[in-house]
């Protein structure tokens, strides 16, 4: 399995299907959406805002991590972690990191949009986890042309490998994806290994396809 692509903007999620299974009697079916500085955003496989505080903690623990602290979330935001989706983090707090202000996201604010400590732990949100030892790759790209390839190419990528590339262009410029080589695990439902493309600043809106 390997991926080699000349592209402008993409999200690549290379993850074994077994991660969506049972462990210790609990079914874990969340989606790893984005990561920076060990902090990553997950939502339930059922959709946005479907995790209670207990379930959010279980999602992070399942992957060897824990709920991110406010300080860890802010550190990730400082290097470009921008997600327009509220999620649980440490000690029952809810909020989300904003890098770029917008009328429809963060109320025009830059920083951590903080909903505070929630008294009702049965409220349902997404979750922000922290695991500095997790496997990750990707980054922010601004070059006019760039060849991106999976870690270890042309060898197979590792199990549970997560890659997130955010390619930025100027207003009015177009983005072109040209796949030179693409080989992932055979799965017609695209639940094991897959690539997703978003035409937006974040990975919440502008879904273009999988």
UniProtKB/TrEMBL annotation:
Residues 1-19 form the signal peptide. Residues 38-131 form the Link domain. InterPro entries: C-type_lectin-like/link_sf, CTDL_fold, CUB_dom, Link_dom, Sperma_CUB_dom_sf, Spermadhesin-Link_domain. CDD domains: CUB (cd00041). Residues 137-210 form the CUB domain. Disulfide bonds join 60-129, 84-105. It comes from the Eukaryota. This is Tumor necrosis factor-inducible protein 6 protein.
């Amino acid at each position: 399995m390997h991926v080699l692509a000349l592209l402008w903007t993409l999200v690549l999620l290379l993850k074994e299907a077994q991660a969506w299974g049972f462990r210790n009697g609990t079914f874990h079916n969340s989606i790893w959406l984005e990561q920076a500085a060990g902090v990553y955003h997950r939502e339930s496989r059922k959709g946005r805002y479907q995790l209670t505080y207990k379930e959010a903690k279980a999602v992070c623990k399942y992957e060897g991590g824990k709920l991110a602290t406010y300080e860890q979330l802010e550190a990730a935001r400082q290097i470009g972690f921008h997600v327009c989706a509220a999620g649980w983090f440490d000690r029952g707090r809810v909020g989300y990191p904003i890098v770029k202000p917008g009328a429809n996201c963060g109320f025009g604010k830059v920083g951590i949009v903080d909903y505070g400590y929630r008294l009702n732990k049965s409220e349902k949100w997404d979750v922000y986890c922290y695991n500095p030892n997790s496997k990750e790759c990707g980054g922010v790209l601004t070059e006019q042309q760039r060849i991106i390839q999976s870690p270890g190419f042309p060898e197979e990528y590792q199990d549970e490998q997560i890659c997130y590339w955010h390619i930025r262009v100027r207003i009015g410029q177009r983005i072109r994806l040209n796949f030179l080589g693409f080989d992932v695990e055979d799965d017609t439902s695209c639940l094991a290994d897959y690539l997703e493309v978003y035409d937006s600043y974040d990975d919440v809106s502008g879904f273009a396809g999988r």
